[in-house]
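User: For my dataset I need records formatted as: sequence, then structure tokens, nothing else. Please produce one.
Assistant:
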Amino acid sequence: MNTSPEVSASSPFDNPSRFGGRAPDTAGASSVPESPFDSQPMLALHDKLTSWYDAEWNRQASNRFQQALDEDFYDGMQWTQEDAQALIERGQAPLVFNEVKPTIDWIIGTERRTRVDYKILPREKDDEALAEIKTKLMKYVSDANKLPWHRSMAFADAIKGGVGWLEVGIRQKAKPHITADIECHERLGGLLSCYDRKAA
């Protein structure tokens, strides 16, 4: 008779007997309750939403390709491989005189030079004090999250490729002395984002 103590497995694939023990008797033990997200209705909903996302992602593939071409033009890659090879074969260098980049940089620089801060205006004369407090709060949120920089980067993405995104969310209990803090997340370029074309 084996009287060695029970040895629990570190994973479901481990055999406790190889440690000199025996598997615990799980007969009659209550199973862990299933998560509501693992129910059949939730799985069906997940499959439906995923299929919608995949369909929209595939539908916008040609648009992302055009955005990539636009960004290539900004970066100076304005020759196709076939045209560049044809020039090289006849002894010509595929030179690029990039007139796109200075124009785009001028537009981006104009946005950076004309940045403005938030200004909360009062509805009534008695609201002036509260409006001033809210203006300072918005200024704090902007400075703490480097919002002008994120906004300028998203604007640059939109100018270069046609689409620029800026995600803003709330970070709960970010600091001990406040309950929540508004956080500006990183920007998402047009090549990494998928938007709902039918959204109003």
